[in-house]
Amino acid sequence: MRYHSMKIYVVGIGPGSPEDITPAAIEAIRQSDAVVGYKYYFQFVTPYLKPGAECIDTGMKRERERAAMAFDQAMQGRVVAVISSGDAGIYGMAPLIWEMQRERQQPVDIVTIPGISAFQKAASLLGAPIGHDLCIISLSDLMTPWARIERRIEAAAIGDFVTAIYNPKSHGRYWQLYRLQELFLKHRNANTPVGYVRQAGRDDQAVVTTTLSSFDPEQVDMFTVVIIGNSQSYLHNGHFITPRGYNLTDSSSPEESDVYSSSADKPNHSSLLGKEVRGEAVGQQIMMQSFRTIESELQRHDYPLDHKWALLHAIHTTADFDMEHILYTDPQAVETLYGKVTDGSLKTIISDVTMVTSGVRKGALQRLGVEAKCYLSDPRVAEMALSQGITRTQAGIRLAVEEHPDALFAFGNAPTALMELCDLIRKGKAHPTGIIAAPVGFVHVCESKHMVKTFRNIPKIIVEGRKGGSNLAATLCNAVLCFDDAAQLRPGRDL
């Protein structure tokens, strides 16, 4: 690095601890005849001043005067260092120095020396919270209208960015952080990790992790950096972690990096199917990522856990966010049905068509000792349908009720089969443990769902309106069978 007169170094001196000042910043300060900045920061650079160097204080909130003084000093043939805490280009002096050079058109060389920003230091103390796409927002409305700041906050929340908050609060600005929390809770899960660090790298440093709903803005001041996670972030042993993405490397090769120099270096995803990654198969990792993405895009985030679990399965299967409006569950229906499975009282799932039973996870059925059956291929069905003038799916339900009157009945195709079950319930012949009603189509579909909703003492999951399908009925069965994975949002262990 060459130094000569009529030069301004705009130096980021880091968050405040000596070990966080870069060698380039130290060297620039050592070569400077004058150091211009706010006097509070002189204490951090004093050990590096060359003999006779002058420290010039402009006071707080006098950034333009500070920049002008730096140019005046430089035009006298002096090498000048303008210091900012953190990185000089992030809410620091660098933009103003460059703007003033354009304004003055003076022959002064400008070099920006990057520094470790406060949000980087805070992140290192919290764990690894900024491992994916991130943005930084200042809540100071001194130079930016609040309406614009609020639009940026909402965009960050909707966009699922890890978000670092600068200038979160001061004596005169006490409500903005509350408003930010309110906006994020509209678009993020209440359990989204939040970390904040006060006086990062200094003697009275304080590091705290919490969640978006539990975060208390009263614990924050102007010396604090707040970091809000994205939908993949999590807390582990008090540390805040945001994964970069799927760790697609084989767990047997920990030395292999998940960062590749080119696309040719990346592993073939398909070749990794079935391998275990961090104790989970790649397929489960993909499903977990999908569920987190869906959860982040829900319009509401205050659903009861068992309804949300069914909803995430429904959207994952269909990629249709209209499910948020049309999926109906009785209160605690999923949890209640899972309890029936675990206590052994629910041993059979009956479906209207074989595609539903095909979609119910065999691993879950085996693990829980549950049988999934469809009577449509039973030779008695065709004979009954012909002799009684009913559909084959109706006949299948009649036979199923004779042998398994207390099963969980799941419908993904035939409204006539659902209507048949409703009739048998009213006649006292069927006593289902639960009903999953997702027939699809245009004839009798809506009516069949209205019928089933009248049985208030039977736990029900209903896809209202015309939509439905065997895939939906099957995934809702799977939601019941793996409800114990809901709290940790870890679907797919039986894939």
% residues in beta strands: 15-25%
Low-confidence stretches: 246-279
Main β-sheet, spatial strand arrangement:
16-21-20-19-17-18
**What is the tally of beta strands?**
21
What's the shape?
rod-shaped
What is the percent of helical residues?
A: 25-40%
Could you tell me the radius of gyration in angstroms? 31 Å
Tally the helices.
Answer: 18
N- and C-termini, Cα separation: 57 Å
Largest sheet geometry: 6 strands, mixed
Q: Report the structural category.
A: alpha/beta
Q: If you average the pLDDT, what whole number results? A: 89
Describe this structure in words.
By secondary structure, this protein is an alpha/beta fold. 37% of the residues lie in helices and 18% in strands. The protein contains 18 helices and 21 strands. It has helices at 23-30, 42-45, 63-75, 94-104, 118-126, 146-158, 176-187, 282-297, 305-318, 323-326, 333-342, 354-359, 362-368, 379-388, 392-403, 415-426, 445-452, 470-481; strands at 7-12, 34-37, 54-57, 79-84, 109-113, 127-128, 134-138, 162-166, 193-198, 206-211, 224-228, 234-236, 239-241, 276-277, 280-281, 327-329, 348-351, 371-374, 408-411, 434-437, 460-463. Strands 16-21-20-19-17-18 form a 6-stranded mixed β-sheet, with helices on both faces. Helix 6 links the parallel strand 7 and strand 8. Helix 3 (63-75) crosses helix 4. Mean pLDDT is 89; it is low at 246-279.
